[in-house]
Amino acid sequence: MIKQTALFIPGNQPKMHISADVFGADCLIFDLEDSVAIHQKDSARLLVKEMIQAFDLSYTEVIVRINPVDSSFYQDDLKEMLQARPDALMIPKATKAVIEKVEADLKHYNDIYPNETLKLYIIIETAMGVETALETCLASKRIIGVLLGGEDLCTDMKVTPTKQRIELQYPRSKIAMTAAACNIMAWDTPFVDIDDHDGFKEDALMAKALGFGGKVCIHPNQIDIVKEVFAISEKQLKEAQEIIEAYELAQQQGLGAFSYRGKMIDKPILERAQQIVAASSKE
Amino acid sequence: MDINKPSQAGTLESNDVYVQLLPNPNGNIEIKLKSIVYKQFKDQILQVANQTLKDLQITSCVLIMDDQGALDHTIKARIESAVKRSL
Q1: Which pLDDT score, from 0 to 100, does residue A103 have?
Q2: Where does residue A3 rank: exposed (0-12), middle (13-18), buried (19+ CB within 10 A)?
Q3: How distant is the Cα of A66 from the closest Cα of chain B, in angstroms?
Q4: pLDDT (tens digit, 0 to 9) for every residue of chain B, 87 residues total?
């Protein structure tokens, strides 16, 4: 399944829930955390639970961002969402210890609320989280994706976010690399200036260049931009197909190494071409 | 189960319903409904409200609903939220 776009939807706003399907996001993240006021946390989780149970959401991946494990809302969020049965939970402020706690709780509830197929996405959004990202991503086999939480990270680092995102250069590289090492999805941090479409596109291009597989959106008008940026271009696909054809011809001629347009093609380049063709067939 | 204290849930935003729950000295369930789609969906809304209260084992209350076109699942969620807040 292609997961380039994931749209955050505030958990306590019914009008956003019922129009979620028209936006075309690959994944929907129903949010019980930052977009919900403290005195509405109880109401939001019930609304999200009822919504997931009432609607056919099989066209997308349904994810719920619950409240942090050390918050007073976590246990109730977990119990209600285990009844709702989304495809995945998104765990904020993730560390190895946090994921181990979630795993233990899921195991504890499994007899009452079977949850063996429930997946996890984690949000790395603290300095310690960035530095220990590898052990966190490996903490559970349920983890299928990691999101960089840039705004919270800047707060933790006590830096002011810049338009060029200089402060996120290292964290972004680290998270993309960690995700690749663990063979899980990497989503880049949200871009909060929802009216700056050019800035958002530049940001998404940077994320793609660093190795992220997609980007989280906080407004529907960001979705098409992400799809455009992360789509495989016709030129890329044509080049990949030609490299594979050149390889097959070289094989027939009994040649090990071969060249394509003056460049020597070795195994990594060939594999990359094969990945592009495979990914294109899924789009 | 009776309602012990007043509570409310929901908002007056589009596709939501604002519900208020009050103890009922008469000992039965009384629903007061105002809706932007009253003519078309009054019966459906009341049916969902009554069923939700029944599922939550509420036998006595005054339920005041100001509906802005909420779907069934929203009505159910908001009533459940108000009930839990009133206990």
Answers
A1: 98
A2: middle
A3: 18
A4: 778 899 999 999 999 999 999 999 999 999 999 999 999 999 999 999 999 999 999 999 999 999 999 999 999 999 999 999 998
Measure the CA–CA gap between A91 and A136, rounded to whole angstroms. 11
Q: What is the pLDDT of residue A256?
A: 73
Query: Buried b vs exposed e over A100-115: b needs ≥16 C-beta within 10 Å?
Result: ebbbebbeeeeeebeb
Say if residues B6 and B21 touch (Cβ distance below 8 Å): yes
ipTM of the complex model: 0.96
Q: What crossing angle do the helices spanning A197-210 and A169-182 adopt, rounded to 10°?
A: 50
Cβ A66 vs Cβ A78: under 8 Å: yes
Option in A15, A18, A50 nearest B76 (CB): A50
Pair B85, B41: CB distance under 8 Å: no
Classify burial at A52, counting beta carbons within 10 Å of its beta carbon; exposed 0-12, middle 13-18, buried 19 or more: buried
Q: Which residues of A touch B83 (CB under 8 A)?
A: none
Looking at the DSSP assignment, which residues form a beta bridge with residue A96? none
Determine whether the interchain pair B78/A43 forms a contact, defined as Cβ–Cβ distance below 8 Å.
yes
Q: What is the DSSP string of B14-65?
A: TT-EEEEEE--TTSSEEEEEEETTHHHHHHHHHHHHHHHHHHTT--BEEEEE
Please name the residue of chain B whose CA is at the shortest distance from the CA of residue A55. B73
Strands (E), A2-96: 5-10, 27-31, 61-65, 88-91
Nearest CA in chain B to A80: B77
Q: Which of A122, A126, A187 is nearest to A152 (CA)?
A: A126
Question: Please, which residues 13-32 of chain B have a Cβ atom closer than 8 Å to chain A?
Answer: 13-16
Residue A67's identity, in one-letter code, is N
Q: Which two tokens stand for residue A238?
A: 């044509």
B73 touches chain A (CB under 8 A): yes
Measured over all CA atoms, what is the biggest interatomic distance in chain B, rounded to whole angstroms?
Answer: 33
Instruction: Output the six-digit token pair for A274.
Output: 């094969």
Instruction: State the count of interchain CB pairs (< 8 A) between A and B.
Output: 46
